[in-house]
Amino acid sequence: MQLRNVAYNFCISFVLSSIGQSSGCVADENVATAGGRLQQSVIRASLVSALFDEEIVAQNVFAVRHRYLMLSMSGRYDYLANWVLPSETHAAIRLSGAFTPTEVVPLTPKEYLDSDGSGGELVSPVFDLLDAARSLGRLEDLRGRVGAIPPARTEAQQRARAAMLVLLAMELNDEVTVAAEVNRLRALVTVAVPASMSDQWPETLVAYRSVTRFPKSTACDVVKDLVAYQLQRGIPRESAEWHSQIFSLAGRLKTQQISGTDIATESTDVLKNWIPIARTRWIRDAAGVAKASWRWRGDECNHVTGRDEDYLFYRSPLTISAAQSL
Predict the structure, then answer these.
(1) What digits encode the pLDDT tens for the residues 241-273?
(2) How many CB atoms lie within 10 A of CB 310?
(3) Which of 8, 87, 143, 271 is deepest in the core (most CB within 10 A)?
(4) CA pair distance 266, 258, nearest whole angstrom
(5) Segment 38-49 mean pLDDT
(6) Before 215, cis peptide (omega within 30)?
(7) CATH second-level architecture of 52-314?
């Protein structure tokens, strides 16, 4: 391991030295100017990102959450801010998430659960960072740091930056900024053709956070775009959990707009005399498909979201007299 680190540091120093000589900046950090140090820091971060696939690192959600839960609140903020936003270790904004297993089993690690301990939800280091910033009163500091990030050249990073600004504006109840950044994000989403679920985390995080936390925000319009431009075209392929979750968000949003109540709350109220039952399939449920939600309209109950094999059993066990028993 020590030999590997020496070799790694030698390679980094060699590349930086070569870049420094060709660009006219000093490679020796001991004599470099402040501008030279900053340039070397940026080059170093870009080089590390090139050597180690950023997409692979960004998808390491549960490991990041495991470490995050072991830290104090201030430690959580510093750790997640440096992990999500560009820092000395990487040059990109990391917006990623993971869907937790639909059925929670005993002794499930906390990093696989959302804040209320349920399953079938979306968790993300970005959400954890926002919660930590809110607890510490540092949302404005965080927004300033995101705003200072130079506009990206790649379409994916443009979506990531816009999504972060939307998320922070929602937390700060700044609907003016939400509207401006959502328009920028939606313009990018409408022309994007994601090859996999990981290609569309920025808009997915905005859609999920807006519907579940800020249902009256204009950011909820992102859900409609995902339905129109992705779901109806079957994009991305082989992402059943993502399709299930977006359909769930669309159903919750429609219910909120019609009745003014959240489908999650409504389901809890109307199921007092009913027992929800689902036929579980471990491959599907482990991936994190959306949980079942129900809505009553008069004497009719609608299955709004969930799996194909969700059922309701009425809480009324049948009794058979002795004469009728076999």
Answers:
(1) 888 888 888 888 887 777 666 555 555 556 677
(2) 16
(3) 143
(4) 12
(5) 55
(6) no
(7) Alpha Horseshoe (1.25)
